[in-house]
Amino acid sequence: MRGRECSIANAxxxxxxxxxxxxxREVMLGVTRxxxxxxxxxxxxxxxxxxxxxxxxxxxxxxxLYDEHPRxxxxxxxxxxxxxxxxxxxxxxxxxxxxxxxxPPTVWEHACGGELHLRAVCATCGEPVGATPSRLxxxxxxxxxx
Amino acid sequence: MRGRECSIANAxxxxxxxxxxxxxREVMLGVTRxxxxxxxxxxxxxxxxxxxxxxxxxxxxxxxLYDEHPRxxxxxxxxxxxxxxxxxxxxxxxxxxxxxxxxPPTVWEHACGGELHLRAVCATCGEPVGATPSRLxxxxxxxxxx
DNA sequence: CTCGTCAGTTGGAAATTCCAACCCGCGCCC
DNA sequence: GGGCGCGGGTTGGAATTTCCAACTGACGAG
Lengths: 146, 146
Known about the structure:
The structure is a homodimer.
Chain A: H1 7-15, H2 20-28, H3 34-41, H4 45-57, E1 61-67, E2 72-77, H5 79-82, H6 85-98, E3 106-109, E4 118-122, E5 135-139, E6 142-143
The first copy, chain A, binds a DNA duplex (30 and 30 nucleotides) through helix 3 and helix 4.
InterPro entries (chains A, B): HTH_HxlR (IPR002577), WH-like_DNA-bd_sf (IPR036388), WH_DNA-bd_sf (IPR036390)
Keywords (chains A, B): DNA-binding, Transcription, Transcription regulation
Protein name (chains A, B): Transcriptional regulator
């Protein structure tokens, strides 16, 4: 069985494996080199190499040659990769509140000068997401009624 | 090596394994029974049982007895679990845009009556997250300068 | 008495991950 | 020129996880 047809599952097929999002976190923080990503995430080098490859193949990261002789590459986020920042930030906010003990260990700064915190709202009404229940209205192109 | 001290990593330690977020998706959609969750996610039953156990232990889900004789349980989202909805929605938006081919296969309805779509904004300035770069300002309680 | 439902558990095979060690092209230093 | 170190990986084998199908156990329906 393959489960429900759903973009959450599709997204997780690309970025849902063990070290993928942590590697992306590093790239978003400006840490773009293999050794540094390995050290900062704690991933083993072979697995990290595999994950970076699938992220590049999926268009989330791109590999850029920053030095010939010897050939050295770094990893940069594509538009697709940058579009994952809300997910990363959502995980961070949630981890800060419900998992991590003590004060938030890492804090990001937004371009506006303040600390970067996520506010997730319904795009239509502007109410914050999460408090109110939601229901499924379409599945596989077919409306469902309950 | 254990990597950077970070709430993203802490969050992923709880909900980052293969089927955890898909199980949570089902619960959020009102599918609360073991067999249905297994069918809708595609997870094998033993792994699903293990994941549900860790989610309950972590306080993301709670197990509720809905029938004695025979004892039957269902899974409900706690406050902590509901607080993960922005993450789920962020993954869905991203998957819709960058992974899934064709129209969004699943659509959620918000309490306001409209389709539920995520808008992720900086909590201080209200600008959408992701367009502008961010940088790390504190790490492990210590400010960093670059 | 048999079949079906629900919530799992069990056992063994298959796939993944972890870890340490290795490789290769170079630059630096003496 | 010999040795050391860096950056970006690859390799091999052991340890861990996952997958899958079958089974359990308590019921209710026919």
